[in-house]
From TrEMBL:
Protein name: Alkaline shock response membrane anchor protein AmaP
Residues passing through the membrane, by range: 7-29, 49-68
NCBIfam families, per the entry: anchor_AmaP
Natural source organism: bioreactor metagenome
Protein keywords: Membrane, Transmembrane, Transmembrane helix
Length: 172
């Protein structure tokens, strides 16, 4: 889920909490029925409430789609043969890259993200590195290993590998 989706989800959750508190107070009789009825009587003919309802509906649909994983591509099309297309799960490729990246001396907590454009793969590796490890040499090793292993296993050429070390700390 992206950052804007998380912000929307947080605001939506707060709104739903307020509505839930209102419903509890109304059902327990703390808020009189006459107050709710008089508020409901002001709603017809007010465009502001209609706009609010439409916005709430659109936010609900967006969160539903994001929650079901309907955003983004979950498979990579790696080729076509005489019997059909060949697909591989994006998560499978990312997990595979993270697995062999973690096997490099001094690298741990690696995670990978892949994007495919024009039949070429772009890879971003986020990892932690132990103190005393040469970052430029390790970065080159990761890039070469990713390009070699992905081409050998999946058959897709890797256009670019971006390596980002988020922490310099020993393995826990």
């Amino acid at each position: 889920m992206s950052i804007p989706d998380r912000i929307i989800l947080t605001l939506y959750t707060i709104l739903m909490a307020v509505v839930a508190v209102f419903l509890v107070l109304f059902s327990l009789g703390v808020i009189p029925t006459s107050d709710v009825a008089s508020f409901a009587a002001t709603m017809p003919g007010r465009w502001e409430y209609a706009v609010g309802g439409v916005v709430l509906l659109l936010v609900s649909l967006r969160l539903l789609i994001a929650g079901l994983g309907g955003t983004g591509i979950s498979t990579l099309s790696i080729g076509t043969d005489k019997e059909g297309k060949i697909h591989v799960g994006k998560t499978a490729v990312e997990d595979y890259i993270a697995e062999f990246t973690n096997d490099i001396f001094g690298v741990h907590s690696a995670k990978a993200a892949v994007k495919m454009a024009d039949g070429l793969l772009t890879v971003r590796v986020n990892a932690s590195i132990e103190p005393g490890i040469n970052i430029p040499d390790t970065t080159d090793e990761i890039k070469q290993l990713v390009k070699k292993n992905v081409l050998a296993t999946i058959g897709i050429e890797v256009k670019d590998v971006e390596v980002f070390f988020k922490h310099i700390k020993p393995k826990e």
